[in-house]
Structure of TetR/AcrR family transcriptional regulator:
Amino acid sequence: MAADADSSSPTRRPWRGVEADERQARRRRQLLDAAFAIMGTEGAAAVTMRGVCRRARLTERYFYESFSGREELLVEVLAATANRAREVLLTALADAPGEPLEFIRHVVRAFTEFVTADPRRGRVLFVESLAAPELTSSGASMVGDFTATIADGLGRTDVTAAHADEHDLRLNAQAVFGALAYLYQAWLTGAIDVDRDRFVEHVAQVIGNLARSTSVR
């Protein structure tokens, strides 16, 4: 197995002009990329310390340089993927058209493109995050970040009920997230076999319908 050339050095001096902190950051990135590749194709259960190190071409001692254990690594992979997905949502929300349903379609298209451009992303976000027990607590935090973004997006359009309040927005955002999680899971795994255009349109319609819900009296 390959290892960095500074593996036996007791110092943190530059090696070939690269500082020690930068080398460590690179090794961490290699481990995360390796874990993402395994998790996104074989599943979280297939992610092992040895397997990740083998794929990253690093010795096992470097694993503990960056991670306390397998669970922390899985959480970091999910967090990194979720953060990228949320950035896609924020960008799409910022340049979406004003008409309510077109606004929703635009955001759904952008998000769908993100998760299908690399199928591993969709599996990490919508399959493994729900199936791996190690990700239960971190998944809850991810839901909070996403629902806040969804609530913000719903608040920018006229698709919500005219008299909807802040509680309606938050409740609807939770409902939208729950619906999307299982819709994308079913579609990405092939349980629902429809083409992308129909899927995007259906998701947009679901969001539009949920966004109009209100319990204000």
Summary: The chain is about 70% helix and 0% strand. Residues 34 and 52 are 6 Å apart (CA to CA). Residues 1-11 have pLDDT under 50 and may be disordered. The longest helix spans residues 70-94.
